[in-house]
User: What shape does this take?
Amino acid sequence: MKTSVNSLSFAPAKKSRVPLAEIDVRGADAARKLGRVLPSSTGRPVQASTFNSAL
Amino acid sequence: MTAPVVPFREIVLKVHSRCDLACDHCYIYEAPDQSWRTRPKAISDEAISWTARRLAEHAEKHVLPSVSVILHGGEPLLAGPARLRRVCEELTAALDGVAELDLRIHTNGLQLSSRYLDLFDEFGVKVGISLDGDRSANDRHRRFADGRTSHPLVLKAVELLQSERYRHLFLGLLCTIDVANDPVAVHDALIALDPPRIDYLLPHATWDAPPARPAGSPTEYAEWILAVFDRWEEQGRPVPVRLFESVLSTLNGGPSLTESLGLAPTDLVVVETDGSLEQVDSLKSAYDGAAATGFDVFRHSFDEVAAHPGVRVRQLGLAGVGPECRECPVVRSCGGGLYTHRYRSANEAAGRAPFDGPSVYCEDLEALVRGIETRTATRLVPGALADPGELVAAENELTRTLLARLHADLAGRGGVEWAEAWRLTALVDGPGLDEVLTHPYARSWLLTTLEALRTGRSDAVAHAHRLAAYTAAAAVRGRLDVPVTVGYADGRLVLPTLGELRVGAEGESGRAEVVAAEKGFRVRGERFELEVECPREPCGDWLPVRGLGRDGAPDPALDDLDPYRDCFGTAVLPRLGLAEADEWSGRLGAAWGLLSATVPGHAAAAAAALTTLTPLAGAGETVAGRHGYGALGVPVGLTGDALALGLLRGFRRARFRALRDVADLYALDGGWLHRADWHEEPVPVSVLLAETHERVAVAAYDRSARTLAETRRALEALQGAAELTVGGKSLVADVLSEWEEAARG
Assistant: This one.
């Protein structure tokens, strides 16, 4: 029985990392990402007009 | 129809009912509905005031964060600056403090001048302009009554909007398609004006008045739009095109972005110049009075209109489209097309509602969706589906986003303790923190804490304060000289991924400073100072997280210490004794051996992915719980073949959960039900896909002819499932390859 922890076993091969303090948690991307694991209402993005005859 | 009312978020306000152009494709003046003839030319003061009042009460009642008001016509600029100022002032005042007001205007641009644009700048009114392409394309329909071209005046308006002073108000260009025009020339002409956004509209048509098809092709409009799409791609997608973005969004499982596509419930209402409340005005293309509701802003609330049967039927999603559409694999993207385009008066004679059928553009819409999917599928598939390393990276990114979200949600409620831990976390943000946050139970901690905050539980902030333990563990792993003060409870200080240190008697709690040392770390409390020289070895009061590998077997961590490991919905065991752990390690090694001999590909994938095993009581099923990728709850009573199969099943469950957490595999889950031979009742696609993904691996292990036959039928059902996104389809294709390999034996 080994008693040592596999010290690097949890680390991913890391690509470029956005610093924690700079992660946007309110934008559409974050809403979609978090919406898969949090029971929040993602709903329709604010200020996205869907009217066919206008933008 | 008992579903709750869908509140209106978008109001189309007709501020003027006449136009200074005489476009022969106009749905207001050239359509069967001629109600414009009896309406006031400009909206009255009274109608403006009541609209503002109704909108504010609607926004307040439904707690809407924002509402959009689109000033429309006819030609809205004909209302004149004074009337438009009044509209802007009344709406702004009524919505102040109630909801954010997003004001827009859609114009032909002929009257646009600094006089208007200064007003729009004052109230933040954004401007969209209609333009059908290059001069010859635009002149095909967009002319004055005397036949003169409008093109130079529109270009002048666009030029003014593009000036530095007004550029921020420019929304983009709206182009109505005529297949007689050259699609590339049209698109290039629009792109040359450098608009912030473009949309292409199908000309309004119904089964009673079908669209022109000069080449006789049933997919003439799709071919035209796809030619534009190819050009847009070739140009590197220089500006967003709403039509394309909507299809790309729905192919990926996202929402549709226009009412002309997709199954999103309609949330817009039209206010005419006389204060009448109407349904979407393109219905005027169907028959006289098609848009009318009988309501007006003076006597009726927006809720009353929202409950109108004509509005409700466009809020039913899949249930609101005809039976042919419900069976169609592209219905999530096309949504049966624009409601207006489904109109067929002959339906009534056949006992069907006039809008209860496919669009007159049905074949075009299918060809368009499939054409965009074919062109982009390989690029749309999330990397996490094809590359295990990408999956781990995406999972880590998700955990980091959850941590950032926790910081935002706390909004100061974490006090000084959180603020200090957050500050230090930024200092240790590097490989050490990645190792700690990639540990599956870091996700469990974050989900538990966010849930506690969301539901107002009293222990939410205490959960949040565990951040310091993760930060300290990251500093120790990264050998960073960053002292972190960590709370301990019950005499035990737990550093995630490292282990647990006994610092006091049972029931004792407090705070201690943890700092990395040359090889291990030191812990200093009020009445103690301890050093763990080698965190990988047990010594004194230090219990490390242990490894399970031996004799060359995979070496996941045995995590029977983490406070957040209890996330499997079944009891986790307390720390295993040395002999117990040793025996379990031996059994796991033997099980890995069986897997490697029987399904080497699956075994290697599982060994690479599973970083953490947590012992569960009994001999039931292995469980993937509410944690990050890599953990599995394994009953210690399992042995031999059952343990090998349990590891394989558990790995596939964990993988599927992880994929679902970082990629949209399906949308509208439950919209359809599917047969699965191993269930008595039909199941939603989420269940069929998860279980087929698991059972194909099991079939590879046990070579059961029955499982192979059942999963083959399930895969065939999945291949035709409308719910699947491009990612979901890619996963099904991968599982089919695995099935074929399993069938070859």
Notes: The two ends of chain A are 66 Å apart (CA to CA). The first helix of chain A runs from residue 28 to 35. Chain A has a mean pLDDT of 72.
